[in-house]
């Protein structure tokens, strides 16, 4: 009998279709051959590896779950394994694809006009147009209903004023999907780089997601044509539905981070000899490694079932909250424990654990903090909104 895969002890791979496994393996090769050699240096230099964008686009990873307009039309599980393999490299790489696909291309596809889809989606799928998503504001955080950014009609145009904070891709984006209050409810607008009054300022003082572009967006009476307003949604259900798409991918991504950390620490504890024997020969080390494998296995099964529910059209937001909460917490705890087991070496970016640990401190906060997802589940259980 063949030995189990150390990073897939329940043989979850056997539950994937041939196409899903092929997609996972092709992204894994890209990560190992092209992204991994760059990422530690990019993290050190606080630089996003934008030279990889053409290859990412050529592989069909941008808007991969969307139909038409140059998109691959893959199922939800395929998108999940893409996120897992990208985040095995770095959360910043997965964040780039997640924002482009789930937060920018998805709302244009779901809520835009046909003219808007034709205008932007093919270029976005090809990596020629980069997007960012403007919802979070500095004072609002987990309460998007506390939005201050507003838009008012002015003839055939809209005048958008306000600001957004913690915006992935902001300074490399050609367009921004921005949500604003209006007299007719919350609406989405596509702002374009170069519009007078629209400015992106990169946030530099980060100790997390350093291989990712994070920005503030400012709108000083930006004139936006009616043709750039998303016509087919109104209210918070628009941006919140985008967040559900992004949170789904985040439920998969941190599994990759956890696997990367476990693989690294398995090698390290096997090779490092202290007091006459490998670290891995100690019971304390084996107990910690076993707990990591247990938690990764649970997360893999949770993510796969979530993907099957999504593909069947039965996904509920509370299910996404459970998976995002569980799987990011799992990965963060494993990254911290691996960093500790690496000893002094664990604080350097020559090893992956500290980088994943720092990144996951952001991942557990964005797209709904851990507390927000706990309260979503609590509300579902009790019927009482405790927000």
Description:
This protein has ten helices and nine strands. By secondary structure, it is α+β, with helices and mostly antiparallel strands. It folds into three domains: 12-125, Butyryl-Coa Dehydrogenase, subunit A, domain 1 (Orthogonal Bundle); 131-228, Butyryl-CoA Dehydrogenase, subunit A, domain 2 (Beta Barrel), CATH 2.40.110; 237-382, Butyryl-CoA Dehydrogenase, subunit A, domain 3, CATH 1.20.140. The strands form three sheets. Strands 2-3-7-6 form a four-stranded antiparallel beta sheet, covered by helices on one side. Strand 2 and strand 3 (157-168) form a beta hairpin. Helix 3 packs across helix 6 and helix 8 (317-341) runs antiparallel to helix 10 (370-382). It is globular and about 80 Å long. The N and C termini lie far apart (52 Å). The model has no long low-confidence stretch (mean pLDDT 96).
